[in-house]
Amino acid sequence: MSENNDSRKVSLADAIRQKLEQKKQQNSSTKQGSFQPATTQKMKSQNNKKPNNQRRRTGV
To answer: What's the distance, CA 20 to chain centroid?
Structure first.
């Protein structure tokens, strides 16, 4: 019985690897057909710079 369990685990791992390879191939084929930027850039925060309130705080 232990041999059956081991062979199932190995075949399951192989099946997962095959699925991942298929996904990679599909992703690479779709990237060629559609326009997508090569690298996605991290969005910068759009917060405005806060004013310096040091004069107000110190009373100068």
So the answer is: 15
